[in-house]
Amino acid sequence: MKNKIRDLREQKGMTQEELAEFIGVSRQTINAIEKQKFDPSLPTAFKMAKLFGLPIESIFQFEEK
């Protein structure tokens, strides 16, 4: 699943560690999500959407493989 997490995080001036702490996951999880190696859980996706003030579908784009 494609996402805009890295761009959005950098626009807010946040580190991966800061985002991870706010969302309640590890920095490694944020890194994996940003590199599109891991899809976040629905609660995590909702927390990110709330933090960035955007709908989930504008942050994450589903791709069929």
Automatic annotation (TrEMBL):
The record places domain HTH cro/C1-type at 5-59
- What InterPro entries has UniProt attached to this entry? Cro/C1-type_HTH, Lambda_DNA-bd_dom_sf
Q: Does the keyword DNA-binding apply?
A: yes
The keyword Cell inner membrane is assigned to this record: no
> SMART domains, from UniProt?
HTH_XRE (SM00530)
Q: Name one GO molecular function term.
A: DNA binding
Q: Keyword set for this entry?
A: DNA-binding
Protein name in the entry = Transcriptional regulator
